[in-house]
Design brief:
Blueprint: H1 2-25, H2 37-40, H3 43-50, H4 54-68, H5 80-93, H6 97-104, H7 108-123, H8 126-129, H9 136-150, E1 155-165, E2 185-192, E3 198-206, H10 211-216, H11 219-225, E4 233-235, E5 246-247, H12 256-282, H13 285-288, H14 294-313, H15 331-337, H16 357-370
Parallel strand pairs: 1-4, 4-5
Antiparallel strand pairs: 1-2, 2-3
Helix pairs in contact: 4-5, 4-7, 5-6, 5-7, 6-7, 7-14, 9-12, 12-16
């Protein structure tokens, strides 16, 4: 019995010695120095690195600060402004979160939590900043802005899709995210107005999904089918099904009015191409690729759309490219990588008959007279 007690006593002492040794050897917690980038950089340098000018960054902070505040400063918590700047820098570089943690003076897990926390807060503003024209006044204004580009009537938006590169999400359905160019992506549908403001966005479909499939399943298509927008139309490329409210270019032109229609349609539709280029160049993470879990990719896409619109509403110019950003290719090539031209929809195969009567009427009754005006 005594031997047993001595053994237990010795074991307890050994355990105490082990715990004491572990405490001695445990690395001390180090709080890194956090730089004040808001004060450190002038206006131009700040915008180059964070893609927003200081005044816009503070206005954004006012909108989301309540969602970023901690209840105390325990454990040297990250302030709302530092959380925001960390996230904006991530959008501006697409760097791995360990690098972002070093940038902000925090650990990688802290950087991860901060980026997704701020992203969720910004994305929650989508109903405020991403709005489709609904009132008669807004519809008329949007149509007039498009008309001023190339005299195409009744246009309420330019429609198209772009691909945002992601890492493989894994699982049984991972290959559905591989697009026709061979990389994993999310196929993002957007509608924009003539001022390059995103009025509608759908960011949840795998890269292999056809543009037409995305639009067919969208709420916006249902609204058009219900006649919500009267005689308004969308301009798009030839990858969509023939609908009375989607104006696509003609593959073959035989008359002067058809040529005029095509020229006007292409110039008007070019707004969505310009939008995608500006959006990705303003927030390079969209062009370079998202190296985060799939569930975190979608809020980032929406959050950057919200930020883009916020800056477009303010008519804030896109800042200069960051010279420290290492690009794998010129920006033109990166943006082109996100463009995947869809094959013509089978419904459009017999276009010689022009089975879209609204388009034919528009060509014969409007563009035919326009060429003589």
């Amino acid at each position: 019995m005594q031997d047993a007690l001595n053994y237990i006593f010795e074991e307890d002492n050994a355990l105490d010695d082990f715990e004491n040794m572990e405490r001695i050897l445990r690395a001390p917690r180090i709080f890194q120095t956090r730089r004040n980038y808001f004060e450190e950089y002038d206006e131009k340098a700040f915008a180059t690195r964070f893609r927003l000018y200081k005044r816009s960054a503070m206005e954004l902070l006012d909108l989301i600060e309540s969602k970023l505040e901690f209840t105390s400063d325990r454990n040297n918590s990250l302030s709302p402004i530092n959380q925001l700047l960390l996230t904006l820098r991530y959008y501006a570089t697409g760097s791995h979160q360990l690098t972002m943690g070093d940038f902000a003076g925090v650990s990688r897990p802290t950087a991860n939590r901060a980026i997704h926390r701020v992203t969720a807060a910004i994305a929650s503003l989508n109903k405020k900043f991403i709005r489709f024209p609904e009132t008669p006044e807004d519809i008329r204004k949007t149509q007039m802005e498009f008309y001023n580009i190339a005299k195409f009537p009744n246009v309420i938006g330019a429609l198209d899709c772009t691909h945002v590169k992601i890492i493989s999400p894994g699982g049984n359905h991972a290959e559905t995210f591989r697009n026709r160019k061979g990389y994993m992506s999310i196929n993002v549908q957007a509608v924009c107005n003539a001022r390059l403001i995103i009025s509608d966005i759908v960011a949840r479909w795998p890269g292999s999904t056809h543009d037409e499939r995305i639009f067919s399943a969208s709420r916006r298509n249902a609204m058009f089918e219900l006649g919500t927008y009267n005689h308004s139309v969308l301009v798009a490329d030839s990858g969509y099904m023939n609908r009375s409210y989607i104006m696509m270019p003609l593959d073959r032109v035989q008359t002067a009015e058809e040529t005029l229609y095509n020229e006007s349609q292409i110039r008007t539709r070019n707004t969505i191409e310009r939008l995608f280029g500006m959006w990705k160049r303003r927030f390079p993470v969209l062009g370079l690729g998202l190296h985060v879990h799939l569930k975190n990719c979608l809020p980032i896409i929406v959050a950057t759309a919200v930020l883009h619109n916020l800056l477009q509403f303010k008519r804030e110019e896109c800042p200069p490219d960051d010279p420290a950003l290492e690009l794998p290719a010129p920006w033109e090539a990166i943006i082109e990588q996100g463009r995947i031209r869809q094959q013509r929809h089978p419904d459009n195969a017999r276009e010689v008959r022009d089975i879209n009567p609204v388009r034919r009427k528009l060509i014969n009754n409007y563009f035919k007279t326009l060429q003589y005006s």
